[in-house]
Design a protein that fits this description.
Number of helices: 3
Distance between the termini: 20 Å
Structural class: alpha+beta
Order of helices and strands: EEHEEEEHEEEH
Low-confidence stretches: 1-25, 27-34
Strand content: 15-25%
Number of strands: 9
Strand order of the largest sheet: 2-8-7-3-4-5
Mean pLDDT: 77
Length: about 170
């Protein structure tokens, strides 16, 4: 099983065709309309050290009010994502890593970014997303922070989905 967290808010002035025009500057810190806020990184993460260990680590996620505070790895193979069942060192792991796959880019400029992770019984990884089923908890903790090399992106959480490890884009034709 996996749980998913953190998706962009649709911007208020998003173009009618559902795409971002080519005159918008590239890079996360330039996509201000897609985030609740975006700006310089205000927190130190181990992102650089993790990237040295694992070239596929490209971002960091933390969700205030939970223990979710992990690097994010990119998996090219959406059918069998390597890091869903392996740790940062490439060793098999029941917990795997927090991941995105090839249906999303690594710059967080997609209309919706799906972030996947295991929900082990020990409460690590995305297990604490189940706390968002409580409406009061959700109201008090509705933000997720994504850290990249050059920006801190703050998203409003508007969905938290728990299901088998089938791909949500394919399953629901999103």
């Amino acid at each position: 099983d996996y749980e998913q967290a953190g998706s962009e808010l649709p911007p208020a002035d998003f173009p009618d065709n559902g795409t971002v025009s080519s005159d918008v500057p590239a890079g996360p810190s330039a996509w201000y309309g897609m985030y609740v806020s975006s700006g310089p990184v205000e927190r130190t993460t181990d992102l650089a050290a993790c990237h040295e260990k694992c070239k596929d680590v490209y971002a960091w996620i933390d969700i205030p009010g939970t223990d979710i505070d992990y690097p994010i790895a990119y998996c090219e193979d959406q059918e069998d994502p390597f890091y869903f069942t392996h740790d940062m060192n490439g060793e098999p792991s029941d917990k795997g890593m927090i991941i995105t796959d090839s249906l999303n880019g690594t710059d967080f400029s997609d209309m919706m970014t799906l972030i996947y992770g295991q929900a082990p019984d020990d409460g690590t990884m995305f297990a604490q997303l189940s706390r968002f089923r409580d409406a009061d908890f959700f109201k008090q903790h509705d933000r997720v922070n994504i850290y990249t090399d050059d920006a801190q992106l703050v998203y409003r959480i508007y969905a938290c989905y728990t299901d088998a490890a089938d791909h949500i884009f394919a399953s629901y034709e999103i």
